[in-house]
Design a protein that fits this description.
With about 260 residues, the protein is an alpha/beta fold. About 40% of the residues lie in helices and about 20% in strands.
Amino acid sequence: MHITDQIGTRLAFDRTPQRIVSLVPSQTELLVDLGLEDHIVGVTKFCVHPLHLRGEKEVVGGTKQVDFAKITALQPDIILCNKEENTKEIVERLQAITSVHTSDIITVQESLELILQYGVIFKKEKEAQQLATAITKERTDFLKEMKKSTQNSVGYFIWKEPMMVAGGDTFINTLLEEAGFTNAFTSVEGRYPEVRAKQLIDLDYIFLSSEPFPFKEEHIALFKKNTTARVVLVDGEYFSWYGSRLLNAYAYFRDLRSKLELQEL
């Protein structure tokens, strides 16, 4: 079997990979939802779904720093990475251990492609197709509902000090648009640019994400000092995780928009 991953690396397997190390939380969740939990041997400390996994599998580090000796000792058949989550240096060092599949996801279509590719690699084609079809239906239904909705401007914050937002060319930006919002910082240079307080004045909403910085209620007042925008805490997993997390993302977007609209009445 030959597979070309999403950064163009060609991989060859003479059998279905049985021992999997996943260095990306959303991809770990996807593996479990495809029925591959028993084949996962290593995860990161950020792989929190399902929660019990970190207590049952070897934790090999984070996404930016990994324990190469631990990974080698696990004797994986394949290591799953992501271009944004893991550094180029990490991927290159892992390639000396075993086959490394790297995803690169900005769009929903690329997420669906990854699901289907995992289906091929791990002989879970039926499960992968069912999941992709279910996500597509949820997305189609939601986007039909959104056709007449107002596009509100949003600043989506991922970090507090310095203040950093999601810019263009990011999966977060894609899902903001899917959810019916306009990202106010797509034209600012950088995928996750730093912003100043004066740039918050004309926004309709400020979204404070639950990750990677864990924004809480206490941070809302800090932002309200600089803007008349409504400041809202949002679940970052639904705006930044791909794979099977998308199955419930559109219900979350629907609920979020309903709450925002009710508060405006």
